[in-house]
Amino acid sequence: MTDSTPPVSDIDLFDDAVTVDPWPTYAALRELAPVVYLPANDTYVLTRYEGIRNALLDWETFSSVNAIGFNPMVNEALTGTSLASDPPVHTQLRATLTENLSPRALRGLKATIDTKADALVEQLVNKGSFEAMDALARALPLEVVADLIGFTGDARDNMLRWGQAAMQVIGPMNQRTAENFPIAGELYGWCSNVTAEDLQPGSVGRGIFDAEARGDIPPHTAGHIIHQYLGAGVDSTIASIGNIIALFAAHPDQLALVREDPSLVPAAFNEVLRYWPPLHVWGRRATKDVEVEGLRIPAEAHVGILFGAGNHDPRHYDDPEAFLVERNPVDHLAFGYGPHGCAGQGLARLEAHAVIDALARRVERLVVGPEVRIPTNITRSIEQLPVLEVVPA
Amino acid sequence: MRIVLDRERCEGHGLCEEAAPDLMHLDDDGELVLDREEVSDDDPAAAARANGAVRVCPVAALRIA
Ligand code: HEM
Ligand code: SF4
């Protein structure tokens, strides 16, 4: 009989050094085994592409209930959201959530987002040097999501803090999580009290309240939907746009390819997401004893999905450490997959494609200084990215 | 082989259409239409596109039967 107990590793996924540079850790875990038990996080991590993709599809075995986060308080707080539900409840919640996020619903936004992104990039190219996270990576999603939800005044200023906190608290009960719970609580409080009149007429946010008033969606769901847009949609998108800028600065030859052939814009974003997925790790719970590639995960165990480890698995992608826009890795794991596959990916694509397109038209090369990263629990984002010089197109 | 769409799951992301434009398209309302459900095994290029469409759907709304 072969031993089906997964190997154990003393790695702590939320150790400061690991969160800032997880790549050696991902590689070590992936080469150790497809499933590794981490006592420090009390989680069985899935480390290889196939195991991750299959688990994301198999919600009956890998449940999202009481499972997404790495501390009991956040799992309790997420109860009843689409993120933390399984079908059939999830199917219904997701339908209301995606109604306003489907590519069809977003069609009208494309021109506005393209114009915003292009104006921002034009202004920065003229400036010549700037801090790219604030000036572009944060500026665009904050404006787009604020307009989408119909934010005015106060809430707009808070979006960044709230979005960051909502992701931090998914981590284990470390200092970062403890410090961010009160901020995530502010977001929750605001969403519980917001009314239609607080939101700009004609905005998607206002539309969700109108749907609630008409009885198209159950009472009190409008605030929850807005909560999810803010919690799930801000920090991750910011990270992905920062990554676009940094990766194109580091790989001018790849920017040149997109400049020559703008039809590569979607492929380039897929490769950015594969190369540096914005989310570090995400949870599930095994509903029964299950074997992944011959290694046993016991019923009720917490399971950790390592998006970045899967996206760099050489069993699935040739030469995974190379950043190649022509690779077009359409099946990357950064948006998850299957029933919970990112509900906001259409919006994220609109924003990112607009940025890549504007950069490719207006910039030949970006000269950047060293990027600053700080430890964070879940979102892997650059904190500061100094652009020292723009060589315009 | 036959392409099967789970209409409940489909959210109109349209990535399948990019992979297999001859087999499916989004209509003006953003609903996916399967233009060809049956793909002959004698047409390996079309079969590969069908498999590609299944693979790329981010919410697993397509499968091959
Ligand atoms: C590049 C940016 C983004 C990344 C990398 C990302 C990543 C993800 C991932 C990995 C999941 C799956 C979670 C799971 O399997 O449990 C997810 C779900 C979700 N995302 Fe995104 N996301 C992004 C942008 C957005 C935006 C812009 C929005 C909304 C405005 C959004 C809203 C959601 C929602 C509501 C869910 C839950 C879906 C469900 O439970 O069915 N995301 N996202
Ligand atoms: S990719 Fe999937 S969700 Fe998108 S249109 Fe095709 S079947 Fe529907």
Task: Report on this structure.
Chain A: Pfam families: p450 (PF00067). The complex is a heterodimer of chains A (393) and B (65). Chain A has 393 residues and is of the alpha+beta class. Chain A has one domain: Cytochrome P450 (Cytochrome p450). Chain A is built from 17 helices and 10 strands. In chain A, the strands form 3 sheets. In chain A, strands 1-2-8-5-3 form a 5-stranded mixed β-sheet. Chain A has a 3-stranded antiparallel β-sheet with strand order 4-10-9. In chain A, helix 13 runs parallel beside helix 17. The longest helix of chain A has 19 residues. The radius of gyration of chain A is 21 Å and the shape is globular. The model of chain A has no long low-confidence stretch (mean pLDDT 95). Chain B has 65 residues and is an alpha+beta fold. Chain B is built from 2 helices and 4 strands. Chain B has a two-stranded antiparallel ribbon with strand order 1-4. Chain B has a two-stranded antiparallel sheet with strand order 2-3. In chain B, strand 2 and strand 3 form a beta hairpin. Chain B is globular, with a radius of gyration of 11 Å. Chain B starts with a strand and ends with a strand. The chains are: A alpha+beta (393), B alpha+beta (65). The interface between A and B is medium-sized, with 19 and 18 residues. The site of protoporphyrin IX containing FE has 27 residues of chain A, from helix 5, helix 12, helix 13 and helix 17.
